[in-house]
Amino acid sequence: MKALVDLLSRLALVGLLALSLGTGDLSHAAPSLQEAQIDSYLAAGGSLADLCAEKGPSRAHQADCPACHLPGAILPPETSRDLRAADLAFVARIVAPRESRAARAVLDIAHGLRAPPLA
Q: Which tens digits make up the pLDDT trace of 53-96?
């Protein structure tokens, strides 16, 4: 009987831990793309005083909140339009010509797939 009570108390503890870890992230906001841009601006040597005309503490969300790093690590990063444009340019310049050359080699009737050229 004591073993059953011990087992149930351990299961209840594990369930409570899982519930608290699962719902604790819901009340915190994940860092946004704008905050990442501000962080990179600050890392490059800029200051918030250059961006904001108001003096005093900022009303923006502080990204150093430890509870905000948990859901932020799970979310996929937001991509900006510049990255998408660069990816499309890469595909247009490098990937597409390679694929067209590969298709031409397969469709060329002078060369069989596993044989020397026909004479």
A: 444 555 455 555 665 666 666 666 666 666 677 777 887 787 77
* Integer Cα distance of 114 and 105 in angstroms: 12
Predicted model pTM: 0.27
If asked whether residues 116 and 69 sit together in one domain, one would say no
Helices (H), 44-95: 48-51, 66-74, 81-90
In angstroms, rounded to a whole number, what is the distance separating the alpha carbons of residues 34 and 81? 13
DSSP symbol at 95: I
Residues near 55 by Cβ (< 8 Å), separated by ≥ 6? 49
* Whether 110 contacts 118, CB under 8 Å: yes
Alpha-carbon distance of 48 to 100, in angstroms, equals 50
Do 88 and 62 share a domain, yes or no? no
The domain in which residue 22 lies consists of 2-78
